[in-house]
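ok, trying the design again with the full structure, not the truncated one.
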C-alpha cells in the first residue's frame, strides 16, 4: 500500500494559488495590464495540464465585448495562449488555458514508499 505524500508548503504570499500577480493580456490589436490569480492541475484522463483563474483591471471589457476572446497572457515567467470569457459580479474575467501555463509548476515526480 502506498503512503500518502504531503504537498510541499506553498509560498505564504500566494496561498493556494499557483500564481497571483501582475500580467499582460494581449492580441495583435491591443494589450492591457491586469492582475491575475491562476491555478492549474494535470488531468490524467486526457493527459493535459489545464490552468484557470481570474483576471481583473485594464480594458478587459474591450477584449471580450460580450463574447469569448482568444488572447495571450504574459507573466514574468512566460507567455501562454488563453481564453477570456464572461466577467463575474466583481468584474473579474475568467481565464483558461491548456498546456504549459505562464507560471512555474512543480514538475518533479514524487516517489511513493510502497510497503507490503
Amino acid at each position: 500500500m502506498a503512503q500518502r505524500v504531503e504537498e510541499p508548503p506553498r509560498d505564504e504570499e500566494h496561498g493556494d494559488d499557483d500564481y497571483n500577480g501582475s500580467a499582460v493580456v494581449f492580441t495583435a490589436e491591443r494589450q492591457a495590464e491586469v492582475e491575475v490569480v491562476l491555478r492549474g492541475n494535470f488531468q490524467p484522463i486526457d493527459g493535459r495540464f489545464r490552468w484557470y483563474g481570474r483576471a481583473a483591471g485594464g480594458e478587459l471589457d474591450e477584449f471580450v465585448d460580450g463574447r469569448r476572446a482568444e488572447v495571450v497572457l504574459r507573466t514574468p515567467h512566460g507567455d501562454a495562449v488563453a481564453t477570456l470569457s464572461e466577467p463575474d459580479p466583481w468584474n473579474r474575467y475568467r481565464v483558461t488555458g491548456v498546456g504549459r501555463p505562464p507560471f512555474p509548476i512543480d514538475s518533479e515526480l514524487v516517489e511513493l514508499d510502497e510497503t507490503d
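Keeping the full-length input from now on. Confidence is low (pLDDT under 50) at residues 1-14.
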